[in-house]
Specification:
- By secondary structure, the protein is α+β, with helices and mostly antiparallel strands.
- The chain has two domains: 133 residues, Diaminopimelate Epimerase, Chain A, domain 1 (Roll); 111 residues, Diaminopimelate Epimerase, Chain A, domain 1 (Roll).
- It has a 17-stranded mixed beta sheet that branches. A two-stranded antiparallel sheet has the order 9-10.
- 19% of the residues lie in helices and 37% in strands.
- The model has no long low-confidence stretch (mean pLDDT 94).
- It contains five helices and 19 strands.
Length: 283
C-alpha cells in the first residue's frame, strides 16, 4: 500500500551505527523487503545500518521493530535502543522508559553527562540459546576460521560469536565477516566480534553485523564482548568497549543483567514522499 502523504522520519545514530526511525503508532507504514532495502541504499535511499519502526505496545512505552539494511528483521539492537529511549524520554518528559522488542523487554534511563543507560537483560549461554548447529562449550568453542580460533558465544537478545585477538585492527573483517555470518554452525546466522583486550577495563572491538556488514558500533556486540571476556577471566565485569565510532561502557552486574551506557544522537529529520514507495515496488 502506498501512503497518500509524505512519511516523516528521524535519522539517528549511536556512535556512528546509524538508523532511520519511523513512527508507526498512528499510521500504517508499508515495509516489504524491497522498500527496506531501497530506504537503506546510501545512494538511492536515505541509508542506514538498521531501520527502526516504533509501534504501540501493551506492556511497554513502545515496541521497537528492527530491520537490517538487507531487509531482514532481527531481534535486538543496543545502539537503537538508546536512540529510541532518548526519543521516548523527550516525548514523555520522563527520566526512564520501557521498550519491547523481539529480543526481550528493555528498561532505559538517562545516564550521566547526557548519556543513556539501557538494561539489556540477562545473557544466555546454552548452545541451543545462541543457537548453534551442534553442542559446543560456549565459553571456549571448539571452532576456528581463517586462523582465528576458540571464540566465545553469547546471546544478548541476538546471537554473537566473539574472537579474542592480539590486534583487532589487523583482522580482514570485510573478507571473513560474511563467511562467518553464514557458516552452517550458526543456523540463524551470527554477529561476529573481534576483540583485543587492552587491560581488564578496556577492550578494543570491531564487528561484522548480521545483515548489515561492518558497522562503526554495535551495542549488543559490545555487551557480548564484555560478557565473553569476563567469562574467560580476561576482563572485569565492567569495562569500556572501544568501537570504530567511539566508546561504550558495559557492566555485567551482580544481578546478572547487562547495563550499556552511551550516547544517542539525532542527526536530522525529513519526509519520505509517496513516490518513493512506487519506486521501491519497481526496484
Amino acid at each position: 500500500m502506498t501512503p497518500a502523504s509524505a512519511l516523516p522520519f528521524i535519522k539517528m545514530h549511536g556512535l556512528g551505527n546509524d538508523f532511520v526511525v519511523l513512527d508507526a503508532r498512528g499510521r500504517t507504514t508499508p515495509l516489504d523487503t524491497a522498500a527496506v532495502r531501497l530506504l537503506g541504499d546510501r545512494r538511492r535511499g536515505i541509508g542506514f545500518d538498521q531501520l527502526i519502526t516504533i509501534e504501540k505496545s501493551d506492556r511497554a512505552d513502545a515496541f521497537m521493530r528492527i530491520h537490517n539494511a538487507d531487509g531482514g528483521e532481527v531481534e535486538s539492537c543496543g545502539n537503537a535502543a538508546r536512540c529510541i529511549a532518548s526519543l521516548l524520554m523527550q516525548e514523555t518528559g520522563r527520566d526512564a522508559v520501557t521498550i519491547d522488542t523481539l529480543g526481550g523487554w528493555l528498561q532505559a534511563r538517562h545516564g550521566a553527562r547526557g548519556m543513556v543507560t539501557v538494561d539489556m537483560g540477562e545473557p544466555r549461554f546454552g548452545w541451543r540459546d545462541i543457537p548453534l548447529a551442534r553442542e559446543l562449550d560456549t565459553v571456549t568453542m571448539d571452532y576456528a576460521f581463517a586462523g582465528y580460533a576458540q571464540p566465545g558465544a553469547v546471546n544478548v537478545g541476538n546471537p554473537h560469536v566473539v574472537f579474542f585477538v592480539a590486534d583487532a585492527e589487523a583482522v580482514p573483517l570485510a573478507e571473513i565477516g560474511p563467511q562467518i555470518e553464514h557458516d552452517p554452525l550458526f543456523p540463524q546466522r551470527i554477529n561476529a566480534e573481534f576483540a583485543q583486550v587492552i587491560d581488564r577495563t578496556r577492550i578494543r572491538m570491531r564487528v561484522w553485523e548480521r545483515g548489515a556488514g561492518i558497522t562503526r558500533a554495535c551495542g549488543t556486540g559490545a555487551c557480548a564482548t564484555l560478557v565473553a571476556a569476563a567469562r574467560r577471566g580476561l576482563a572485569d565485569r565492567r569495562a569500556e568497549i572501544v568501537l570504530d565510532g567511539g566508546t561504550l561502557t558495559i557492566e555485567w552486574a551482580a544481578d546478572n543483567h547487562i547495563y550499556m551506557t552511551g550516547p544517542a544522537t539525532e542527526a536530522f529529520r525529513g519526509e519520505i514522499p509517496p513516490s518513493f514507495w512506487t519506486q521501491s515496488t519497481a526496484a
